[in-house]
């Protein structure tokens, strides 16, 4: 099987055309000179976890932000790097495949060769297992030729294994030392980048020369924070799924007798479901974050959907499309608690056929209430991060079953007078993640690869490549890097009275912000989507012409560009220092003190640590 890695692909005419597409670079990445401005030391977003994080990462916490500058930028203390010795760099795919991953490697390779043709890029075969075993493939232009702008991870292969245990970390360090790597670049999501931070810290502590850099690549779209606006693959996944959903909407409208229940990938967060709803306008979406915030039970969710079906029937509409995120099942309070009991028993070695008899009375009652197929799926061993195997739990079939049972009951009681309820279920997961990447993901991934080289040229360790201002054209993107430790938080988990525990520092999945503009847009249109059948079909992925430059709705409506605002704040502070200095007038000094006092009072209140216990989501 290893012999298959990196072999030339058989390409269709469209794939051949896509392989010729050359992504554009922002001005700050063009040429062979690296210009970097290092800002102030970073902190973490939640001050309550700062002590734990700084103690766990003494070598890599509190590092400055890095901004990469265009040639025309006038920044007095910027580092200008013109010498580029040959580098040996390793790259590894971690986690599930996400469209655009190959373009990250292409970008790294091009940047290395542009700055020094003698540099070497080694790809680890088979993900982290290949890293531990030191199985590599040297990346060349010939190998890249049939993988440029293509989907999948098949050039190198992938893994979902973590680089977490001391044995794994030591194996990774041994590989980097044996191969004399100047850098290791880890491509993945929240778990992979948490591991990258730990590797960077360990390497620094052990004085290993290898620098570690992370790249935000995950189809779930949940590696989002003040520094990271989007993840490679999310744009493609949502566009491909939105077309499939829209096709189902058209089919439902044509047949006028089916309700389609569609479960979407995305792990615990509902970003994919939200984005697909805003693109395709199905009748309803149940977000896991809504369920968790309102503590909705299975009964509540069932009744909510049944009431919607009944309202549509009163308008003589006996069809519809309902989206469900795969993480919904863990967001339902009683089901989450049941899963915790099951996983605890599995961890103790209790066999699946004996678990029902060892559950607490209430958990046993819920378990026995559920249909047999769901009971079997809930008994699956949890993932390596202790979460349920969400892709294997057919939540859409469970909800459809409960809704059908309730609608039949209402029909029999005479409270529902519509046609017999008919449900058809789908899981859209694997259909999209091997897709050709969208134009946005091709550009985004390739540029991130170049940013990785700039991070290495600046000698930085434990950083993630970042791009902001993404809703604008490529030539307006801001290129930078942020310490991964600045993205970390420490969760406090409540496990009952007196059982709250402090988690380890980690980059946690970002959930849908129920106070954000994207959710507000959904809320504003929810009634129209439910009753008016305003289905919208974005069509298949476009690479040229109308639609090719379309970006995710959730990316465009949110007001982000954190890195740009940080720079703007620095400019204001510099201007204050210029105006208010020894020798200025009393009036100027008094005005500055008054304004600064007000600002610091407000910011102190806003930045005060939260005492709330984090939810498990």
UniProtKB/TrEMBL annotation:
Coiled-coil boundaries: none
First-listed, main subcellular location of the protein, grouped into a coarse class? cytoplasm
Q: Which GO terms describe its biological process?
A: photosynthesis; response to glucose
Entry keywords, A to Z:
Allosteric enzyme, Cytoplasm, Glycolysis, Kinase, Magnesium, Metal-binding, Transferase
GO CC annotation? cytosol
The record's InterPro entries line, in alphabetical order, gives: PfpB_PPi_PFK, Phosphofructokinase_dom, PKF_sf
Pathway-wise, it operates in:
Carbohydrate degradation; glycolysis; D-glyceraldehyde 3-phosphate and glycerone phosphate from D-glucose: step 3/4
Q: Which Pfam families match?
A: PFK
Where, subcellularly, is it found? Cytoplasm
What sequence ranges are listed for the domain Phosphofructokinase? Answer: 88-454
Q: Which domain of life is it from?
A: Eukaryota
Q: What is stated about the way this protein's activity is regulated?
A: Allosterically activated by fructose 2,6-bisphosphate.
Recorded family membership: Belongs to the phosphofructokinase type A (PFKA) family. PPi-dependent PFK group II subfamily. Clade 'Long' sub-subfamily.
User: Its biological function?
Assistant: Regulatory subunit of pyrophosphate--fructose 6-phosphate 1-phosphotransferase.
Which HAMAP family does this chain map to? Phosphofructokinase_II_Long
Protein name per UniProt: Pyrophosphate--fructose 6-phosphate 1-phosphotransferase subunit alpha
Q: Which organism is it from?
A: Anisodus tanguticus
Q: What is the lineage of its organism?
A: Eukaryota, Viridiplantae, Streptophyta, Embryophyta, Tracheophyta
